[in-house]
Amino acid sequence: MRIVALVSGRGSNLQAILDAVADGAVPAELAAVVSNVPGAYALERAARSGVPTAVLRHRNFPDRAAYDAALAELIDGYRPDLVVLAGFMRLLTPAFVARYHGRLVNIHPSLLPAFPGLHTHRRALEQGVKLHGATVHFVSEDVDAGPIIIQAAVPVLDDDTPESLAERVLAQEHRIYPQALAWIGQGLVRLEGTRVRFARPLEADCALIWPPSTIAAPVR
Ligand code: GAR
Prior knowledge:
Bound molecules: glycinamide ribonucleotide
């Protein structure tokens, strides 16, 4: 499986993927890492792993359609099986999304469909949710939406700040993105309309309940 990753920034999710590819956990090859932001730290991480990099600045294009068309041309030059958004902070045109239907995945720092868009951790705190998390999904036309492959939930603590919550979520992002890519590479994931199905049966024998009942006196 040839992967092209699109990035805009720090690239910690990219690093998790690079590490998982290097140790054989994800049966894939990083064909290229493309950034819309020159100097993004993610590019350095790619180069360090010997992965080809490219920069396509959005500022040099008159509109979204022109940028996305050029981006698609650049991506297709690497002949990817899968395009992986790893902190790529741009809205994508319907034409771009349609071109990579079923071959375009994203990670988002919330339990979608809650909190699409920006500032997810601050918004989760404002809403008082007790569980927050991260989602890896196939990309559909709407922002941070599409068939969900895997989610990780983390507890929200009383003294959390957006930063402390972000850190707890990010640690899980680094687990679930490589996991999702491994499943796709192994052919275990199938798209069925708005849902993702798995080639193997899953057992529903666990739940994360927060706060745990141990904070109160036991019910008799
Ligand atoms: C990650 O938290 C990712 O989930 C988020 O950007 C961050 C990138 O960090 N993506 C989105 O918000 C997409 N809507 P990274 O560059 O260290 O991987």
